[in-house]
Amino acid sequence: MKLYTRHGDTGQTTLVGGKRVMKDDIRIAVCGDLDELNAHIGMLLSFGVPERELNVLIRVQQQLFHIGGELSNPDFAMPSHLTAVDIAQLEQCVDTLQKETPEPETFVLPGGCTAAAESHVCRTVARRAERSIVAMSHEYRVEPLILQFINRLSDYFFVLALNLNFITSIDEKKLYITCK
Fold first, then answer.
1. DSSP string for residues in 55-92
2. Were 110 and a residue from 5, 18, 39, 120 both cysteine, which residue would form a disulfide, CB within 3.0 to 4.6 Å?
3. How does pLDDT run along the chain (180 residues), one tens digit per residue?
4. In angstroms, how far is CA 108 from the centroid of its own chain?
5. Cβ of 34: how many Cβ atoms within 10 Å?
6. 3 in the Ramachandran plot: left (φ > 0), alpha (ψ -120 to 50) or beta?
7. By the 8 A CB rule, do 38 and 126 touch?
């Protein structure tokens, strides 16, 4: 089987179920943002994270894949893979990392160790995906748990970045605002 099909050469692609849409359709944009986030998580994993977070991130990658499938289904006939338990588990991960990490006293600029810097990239891509999903929700039904999950996910990446810098003894890049 060849990797290329030539079906997309005219600017169209196929949704789950076979419906053809233009590649700039909001559903395709959302799936692209989720795919990019998943790729950045893969890069984050390659930089090394504590084993507990490795397991969380692999689970998140799987969840993002399922979310993309749900959102690319024009009839939304697929059962949702997300539950309130998934949100609660992500919140628990955020709470655990916060307890283990000193709270920043100023605004934090992205950076630090390589893994923390990539976690900040994941945070910003998650925020973009969230904005795309909100835009999609103006035209199509979006399961509310998806928005909750993506919102918590960006919080997770922020506190993970702080934690990764803390455990590697790298100081945060801080923003000091002076008022004149």
1. HHHHHHHHHHHHHHHHHT-TT--SPP---HHHHHHHHH
2. 120
3. 777 777 777 777 777 777 887 778 888 899 999 999 999 999 999 999 999 999 999 999 999 999 998 888 766 655 678 889 999 999 999 999 999 998 887 788 889 999 999 999 999 999 999 999 999 999 988 999 999 999 999 999 999 999 999 999 888 777 766 666
4. 20
5. 26
6. alpha
7. no
Quick one: tokens of 176? 């000091």
Q: Are 66 and 175 in contact (CB under 8 A)?
A: no
Task: Give the amino acid at 48.
Answer: G
